[in-house]
Every structure is written in structure tokens, then in C-alpha cells.
């Protein structure tokens, strides 16, 4: 059973027993950083007093480590309540990029897990978006996209099997779809139409994204078009609501 969000995570003292010659404050900061990265956003951390006892360190040493984590945006300290995990929020901008391109530009390593592919008859909604006949074969790719090993999005996409017959043989779990389309098939994606709505994650979806069931998520529908104006891809992806924000550029005509 998952631990309640505001019950402090236990820190076993044995994780701090090895002395590798670095200052104690640095070792404490490294242990706490690892603890934060494996914790859920908003999770309550043990108090400075508890951490000092478990590490055998002065409370000021622990406090200094917490201040550094706060300056890096990894935790937030609330007077009278404690210190909480604060994962960075990634801004999903208007610029058309693949997931892999986006993560690399942020200095993160893109990856994937729970990789599943199949070729199936196109349902009517998918056929209409891809511009093929209902029942025509389409390749479907589903995977959980990760950044630095952390689950970020549940990605489902569809492409015409007639246009890209060997795609699934060419595609690997961690590969960028758009890079494979470019290098293998000579197809360059130019623009995309996207709609964004709010969804609640089912228990199965939440398990894949490693968040509590029914957490909010951004549902992004994307139809991508190549440089010749042909539809290449139609997909629906769920982005974790605790890790993403949506950025839009809006304007209005003068005098209206």
C-alpha cells in the first residue's frame, strides 16, 4: 500500500555508513538528493532533528543541506509544517518537437519502458485522422516515455502501415520515432495540430506513470504533418499533471 503523501519517508541510517572521504555535509546532501528524486512530488520529508539523529550529524549540517536543495528547487520548506519534495515542472510549449528532442534540450536523457507495438485494422477515428480507410492496417506504438529514468508520459501513436511497412522492425524501445522516420524513410515532420484537455488517470495508467490512481493528467491529441502536407502520425498521449505545465501564446487584435 502506498505511503500517505504527508507521512514522512523513512531514511535508513545504513545508507550513510560508508565514509568515502568527502565532507559529511556533502554526503548528507547527496543522500537527500537521491531520496528526493525517488519520492513523489509533495511528499513530506523527515524533520531536520530526525535526519540529524539518523546521520549522526549536527542539525545545522542537515539544515545547510536542505537549504541547498531548496535553492535548486528540489524541495520547499513550509513554516510549521515541514519540508516537502518539489519536482521541477516542465513547460510543454508551442514549439513542435518530439519527446526525445524536448528532453535533450532540457539536459535530460530520454528513454522508454513498457514498450508495446502491433499492426492492427484502423478504427474509424484513427483512420479519419490519418486519411486512410477504416480497417486499413496501421502501426500502433505504445510506451511510457521517461526522462532521466523517471516516467513522464504515456504515449500512444498510430501510423499507416502501407506507408511505413518496416517501421516496427526499424524502431527500438528508446528510439525517437521522428528520428527513425527521418533517417530510414526520409520523412521530415513540419507541423502538428494539437488539442489539450484534462483527464484523470485510471489505476492502470497511473501504475504505468508511477503516480496515484485518478491523479490529473494532460491528454494531448496530436496530428503531425510532413513537409509535403501529408498526415504522418496521429496519437494520444497522457502527460503527468504534476510534472508538466502548458504554455500558450495568446493575443487579440487592437481595439477589440
Uncertain ranges: 1-9
Counting H and I runs of at least 4 residues, what is the number of helices? 8
Strand order of the largest sheet: 4-5-6-9-8-7
Which value, in Å, is the CA radius of gyration? 22 Å
Total strand segments: 10
The percentage of residues in β strands lies in 25-35%
Instruction: Kindly report the average pLDDT value.
Output: 84
Helix/strand structural class: alpha+beta
Helices and strands, in order, run as HHHEEEHEHEEHHEHEEE
Summarize the amount of helix as a percent range: 25-40%
Q: Give a quick account of the main beta sheet: strands, pairing sense, barrel closure.
A: 6 strands, antiparallel
> How does the overall form come out from the CA principal axes?
elongated
Compute the separation of the termini in Å.
Answer: 55 Å
Structure, described:
The chain has 256 residues and is of the alpha+beta class. A hairpin with a 3-residue loop joins β1 and β2. α1 crosses α3 and α2 packs across α3. The protein is elongated. The N terminus is likely disordered.
Amino acid at each position: 500500500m502506498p505511503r500517505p503523501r504527508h507521512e514522512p519517508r523513512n531514511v535508513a541510517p545504513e545508507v550513510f555508513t560508508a565514509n568515502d572521504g568527502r565532507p559529511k555535509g556533502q554526503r548528507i546532501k547527496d543522500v537527500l538528493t537521491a531520496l528526493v528524486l525517488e519520492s513523489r512530488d509533495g511528499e513530506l520529508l523527515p524533520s531536520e532533528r530526525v535526519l540529524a539523529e539518523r546521520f549522526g550529524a549536527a542539525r545545522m549540517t542537515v539544515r545547510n543541506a536542505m537549504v541547498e536543495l531548496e535553492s535548486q528547487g528540489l524541495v520547499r520548506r513550509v513554516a510549521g509544517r515541514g519540508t516537502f519534495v518539489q519536482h521541477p515542472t516542465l513547460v510543454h510549449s508551442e514549439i513542435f518537437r518530439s519527446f526525445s528532442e524536448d528532453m535533450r534540450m532540457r539536459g535530460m536523457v530520454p528513454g522508454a519502458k513498457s514498450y508495446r507495438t502491433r499492426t492492427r485494422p484502423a478504427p474509424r477515428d484513427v483512420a479519419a485522422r490519418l486519411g486512410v480507410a477504416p480497417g486499413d492496417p496501421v502501426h500502433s506504438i505504445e510506451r511510457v516515455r521517461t526522462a532521466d529514468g523517471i516516467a513522464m508520459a504515456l504515449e500512444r501513436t498510430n501510423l499507416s502501415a502501407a506507408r511505413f511497412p518496416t517501421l516496427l522492425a526499424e524502431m527500438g524501445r528508446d528510439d525517437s520515432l521522428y528520428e527513425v522516420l527521418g533517417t530510414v524513410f526520409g520523412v521530415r515532420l513540419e507541423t502538428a495540430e494539437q488539442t489539450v484537455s484534462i483527464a484523470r488517470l485510471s489505476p492502470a495508467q497511473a501504475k504505468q506513470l508511477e503516480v496515484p490512481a485518478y491523479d490529473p493528467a494532460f491528454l494531448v491529441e496530436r496530428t503531425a504533418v510532413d513537409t509535403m502536407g501529408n498526415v504522418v502520425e496521429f496519437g494520444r498521449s497522457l502527460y503527468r499533471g504534476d510534472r508538466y505545465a502548458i504554455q500558450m501564446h495568446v493575443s487579440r487584435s487592437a481595439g477589440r
